[in-house]
């Protein structure tokens, strides 16, 4: 039978279940029925009974009762109840017969390994495009670790699409300014993110602990059709079976999916299962992060909430985060000698000595947290191997100067989620190679290069290099056009623009 559901209008609440009114504009007045094809994963009930062939999860026709009487009408409106909807795409719900192929007779969910920020953003993007997702999380609950806390403007723009950005702003600190300072020379340069208002809805940096994002996303996703999460599900291995993937848990449980996204961190079991190398190097020094409720603004005039201190002996940075304290917490990060033991570095005495170097004459800072990191610059050899994909720290890691690791992972997840949704709905798999080219390309060209440069600028020991850095920053901050250009770079807007240019 020829198709006549050429155009659909009046479909409300496409992304949710419930009663909707559908207007079908008939393609030919000679048609005897308003006839359309049910998209994969949909089931439709028309006026209280199943439409012909529209069984759950099957193909079929949507024929309003009494279709014969509509033969001379150019459009028909009938009421239906969407009982199950995986694809928020009108063409997929009522596509003309023969216009598309059902690429998965037995559709499987995408498996996302890891319920951190990157994993849950990937899940949110897939659910947004009507793709079912099963998240496998090793922990028994969402992590409460502070870890990353910087969110750049374009990342907030992305998170706003899921309804998460506004809630994060409510729970975080908006940082409108960023400073570079010298311990002995005061302020080198102050940059105002407000100059980016022409290119972003969020012209600032947000300081908000990453665990808040995971809780917000989980709250948004938990009741969405197609979303599921399994806690206590440690993935030991994954395998690409050609037509699908299998994740094997530590207890031997096997879970099938259409594809798997490894968002399981630097020690990724997904990456290791795929046999992918993690190329790069490890910095000899470890980074110590200390947090205190002491407000450094009381002793350092005009201190910005994001301040980087260049110093040839010991660089450091200061960031203000909520931290569960009435006035927030200040996080300070310092490099440490490779010759010292972990016990020495994490001792209260060592923490007091580090804080004392921030402002001479004080060492009485209360310390809330002490964390020691080994820091790497590494990138996986590829972000895609068949149906196995990588994002976030599983794909790349870098030093934290500039806050680009977490943000880059979110950018991976959004890029990959949109492309994988196209594949799940029937597009060719090679679109996933574009994900690898775009995101791996900018990871190497921008994220790795910029974070290494950031560290080199702060730790420069040669007077000429120190002076050159001070002059560049002071000149950029004093010229609105140059400040705009610099902030496009450090806010990662340039990296996203570059990724979009790669084909």
TrEMBL record:
<dbReference type="InterPro" id="IPR002938">
    <property type="entry name" value="FAD-bd"/>
</dbReference>
<dbReference type="InterPro" id="IPR036188">
    <property type="entry name" value="FAD/NAD-bd_sf"/>
</dbReference>
<keyword id="KW-0560">Oxidoreductase</keyword>
<dbReference type="GO" id="GO:0019622">
    <property type="term" value="P:3-(3-hydroxy)phenylpropionate catabolic process"/>
</dbReference>
<dbReference type="InterPro" id="IPR050631">
    <property type="entry name" value="PheA/TfdB_FAD_monoxygenase"/>
</dbReference>
<feature type="domain" description="FAD-binding">
    <location>
        <begin position="109"/>
        <end position="449"/>
    </location>
</feature>
<dbReference type="GO" id="GO:0008688">
    <property type="term" value="F:3-(3-hydroxyphenyl)propionate hydroxylase activity"/>
</dbReference>
<protein>
    <submittedName>
        <fullName>FAD-binding protein</fullName>
    </submittedName>
</protein>
<dbReference type="Pfam" id="PF01494">
    <property type="entry name" value="FAD_binding_3"/>
</dbReference>
<dbReference type="GO" id="GO:0071949">
    <property type="term" value="F:FAD binding"/>
</dbReference>
